[in-house]
Amino acid sequence: MNPFEKIFNYQIISRLDESNAIALTSQERAWLRTALAHDSSVDAFTPETLGKLRQLLQDESGIDHRDMIVEKAKHAERQVYHPLLRTLRRLIMQDKGMLLTSRIKHGGTKTNQPGLPVKLEYSMVKREWYLLWYSTRGRSFMATKLQSIVSFEETVLPAERVEELRGRVSALLEERRRQAVIEVVRTYSAELSRILYAFSCFDKSVSYDEEENLYRIHVTYLADEGEFLLSRIRFLGLRVKIVEGDELRRRMLESAEKALARYGNEAHRAEQTEKPAP
Amino acid sequence: MARESFDKEVQFLRLLALAGGAYNRQQFASRLGISVHTYDKTLRYLKDMRTSLQPLSATQESDLAEGLRYNHYESADPLLLFLFRAKSLKESESVRLSLTITLLQDRELTAKELLDACSESMPSDFLCPDEKTIRGDLKYLEEVGVVTRCEGGRPYRYRASNDLIDCLTDEELLDLYDYVDVMANTQAPAVQGYLLRDTLKKALGRRGFAPEAAETHLYKYHYHSRILDEAHLHTIFQAIRERRRLRFLYLSPKKGKNYASKNTNPLFEREPEGSDETTLPLLVIYDHQYGRWYLIGHSAKLGMMKYRMEGITQIETGDAVPETDFVERLERARAQLERSWVTDTLRPVKVVARFYNPDRSGANFVRDRVEAQGQWGTIREESESTFLYEITVNGIYEIKPWLRSFGSSCEVLEPAWLRKELSAEWEEIRKYYESVRENI
After folding, report:
1. B390-402 b/e with 16+ CB inside 10 Å = b?
2. What is the C-alpha to C-alpha distance for residues B66 and A207, in angstroms, rounded to an integer?
3. What's the confidence (pLDDT) of residue A194?
């Protein structure tokens, strides 16, 4: 399965686009055959469709490379596909509104909340699906776990209303946007690659000051995503330092002080009584 | 067939994706070990390719030189996929192949009929192909599975093998697109899945679905550059299957240079940086913490070797080894790596940590995270507000960042020296932010 085949060449693809033609390769079919072997396929298709797909692919070689791959530090895979994705994605595609009934954090349910479903979002960190929607009652942009959805009912919204609500969502997202600047501590420049990889899952840009030999990572994030950003910064420890972003800086100080309190004065005491660390 | 290397493009895109915006032309070129002229040429080539694949807005256009940035809320399209569309091709060949595929979309044709049809539809600035060329093209297209030979005797008839798409109803096609989208984005390897996603997206367009129909899903905190590392997977998997050694120039990511140009002009020849490696590939590791791939191999002199995929360039397949050697080395490597947090094979250490449940009532996100990410470690209840986590792991270097990421919700108990190290680190971190208090 060499992905560098000439059939994938961009000139061929754009010419095929012009003539509205399709080139489907055995590499793509073989990948699909392997993908369909995953347990989640039963949630993604009706049994008839799944049977049909398996039959259409039965002659593909489907060489499986998974035995040569070891995945490490993986988050337990709770859910890859959620059965509600099929119906919810159609609501979004057809610009429908909804009445949503969902469980809330501290127990109990909220029934028939009116709103507009906007996107379905999978968090690679939590390995879970969320419905992003606009609540017309609360006038807010919401993220509800698909796991917490009890039921929903389709409603019809006039096209202008949908347009208006989508506009509000963009405005709300804009409002929530925050910026932080994270500096790579110079002593750790040798680990630059690792540090940049750790931030590569954020919306970010990097600046470099040649005179000072200093790298700064400018991260744009949504206010409620600050927690994950902080956990990444703590993950990297002494290698990075937040230089802009008062709230994040305050939280880091708080973390450090609380952590030191956990270790108590004991660390200090140990220094005097115990042998040095190996 | 001439071997084509995409090392330069891969490293170029990786530097754009990771350090986007950081360097000017001069700095960028020197980090890749290429001239500014080559930098300009490569950038132009990548830009041309990208624009011809998807029309870009003015901001995206100017963005490419400054790095690849995603607007998460707009689209889940993998921008780096265009690397895999970079194979060079003569224009006449691209015209001919695409015309052949187009002609075979909805009908069956023999090579002769195809030749006639080609001659009619070939753009005037290109020569009409002869029958031998057409037969050669059909053979290639059949090999890659794009065209299929229909049942029946000579003369053979051919048609595009689009059954997978054509046999599905609109609803079924939409379900298939979604599934491929989800699996390509959440599973590895993903390149072929993303290519299929592109194809199906086009098929949806042909059926009259609006482009937005393919944009209902988003993936948060995605390691986009992971698909660049997949560029070597094909060669590696094939070598593993055939028990063959691999030779490559390894540029350790720690040395700061990401690419070594192969100069053909001896006047400009420099000492190549990096090291020539020969290794028997055993398996690959995908690290979910950074979205990075590693190659695990065995070298005659040094035993088990670990290479970061991003440092591997000029990869070539070498000679084969006996099956028994391979099996023995693979088993040993698997055993050595069993207790590695990622790839560390240092002496196993027992680590015990106390975790504190959040003060607030409701979801216990500390417990959730430890359960989901703690790999083979075990959990023991301790009190209302705490639980203990215990793991025996090869070395502490790889697990330490994870423990630290919990902040004050995690207190390391054992080994004592690790406890002391973390305590000292928190003291340093506190100093980083001391000034915050003064500002308040």
Report:
1. ebebbbbebbbbb
2. 10
3. 87
pLDDT in tens, B172-189: 999 999 999 999 999 888
- Identify all chain B residues contacting A54, using CB atoms and an 8 Å cutoff: none
Residue to test with chain B: of A86, A262, A268, A271, most B Cβ within 10 A:
A262
Structure confidence at residue A159 (pLDDT): 94
For B335-364, how does the pLDDT look when each residue is reduced to its tens digit (9 = 90+)?
Answer: 999 999 999 999 999 999 999 998 876 678
Per-residue pLDDT at A143 exceeds 90: yes
Contacts of A81 in chain B (CB under 8 A): 179, 182
Least confident of A17-26, A145-154, B13-22, B185-194: B13-22
Indicate the residue type of B367.
R
pLDDT of residue B332: 95
C-alpha span between A45 and A35 (Å, rounded): 13
**Per the CB < 8 Å rule, is B375 touching A73?**
yes
Closest CA to A200 of B19, B407, B13, B393: B19
Confidence of residue A163 (pLDDT cuts 50, 70, 90): very high
Beta strands in B221-311 (DSSP E): 244-250, 275-287, 292-299, 303-308
Residue B97 in contact with residue A14, Cβ under 8 Å?
no
The dihedral through the CA atoms of A36, A37, A42, A47 has a sign that is positive
- Give B 313-372 residues with CB within 8 A of chain A: 337, 340-343, 356, 361-363, 371-372
Q: Which residues of A touch B102 (CB under 8 A)?
A: 16, 19, 21
The lowest-confidence range among A130-144, B56-70, B92-106 is B56-70
Which of A4, A16, A73 comes nearest B288 by C-beta?
A73
Residue B232 backbone class (left: φ over 0; alpha: ψ -120 to 50; beta: rest): alpha
**How far apart, in Å, do the first and last CA atoms of chain B sit?**
68
What percent of chain B clears pLDDT 90, i.e. is strictly above it? 56
- Check if A42 contacts B (Cβ < 8 Å): no
Quote the CA–CA distance of B403 and B355 in Å, as a whole number: 10
pLDDT in tens, B19-54: 777 787 788 777 777 788 888 888 887 777 777 766
B249 and B265 Cβ atoms separated by less than 8 Å: no
Backbone angles phi, psi at B417, to 5 degrees: -70, -30
Tell me which of 3.40.50.720, 1.10.10.10, 1.10.3720.10, 3.30.300.20 is the CATH number of domain B91-161.
1.10.10.10
pTM here is 0.89
At the topology level of CATH, where does A177-263 sit?
Answer: Alpha-Beta Plaits (3.30.70)
Closest CA in chain A for residue B28: A208
Which of chain A's residues have a Cβ under 8 Å away from the Cβ of B399?
none
Cα–Cα distances (Å) from A263 to A253, B125, B380, B410, in that order, read: 15, 77, 20, 10
Quickly state the pLDDT bin for B269 (edges 50, 70, 90): very low
| pLDDT, tens digit (0-9, with 9 covering 90-100), for B371-386 | 999 999 999 999 989 9
Residue among B278, B341, B289 at smallest CA distance from A199: B289
- Report chain A residues whose CB lies below 8 A from the CB of B361: 106
What is the CATH code of the structural domain delimited by B348-439? 3.30.70
Q: Where are the domains positioned within chain A?
A: 6-68, 85-157, 177-263
DSSP string, B336-381: HHTT-SSS--S-EEEEEEEEE--SSSS--HHHHHHHHH-TT-EEEE
* Phi and psi, residue B322, nearest 5°: -60, 145
What ipTM was estimated for this complex?
0.91
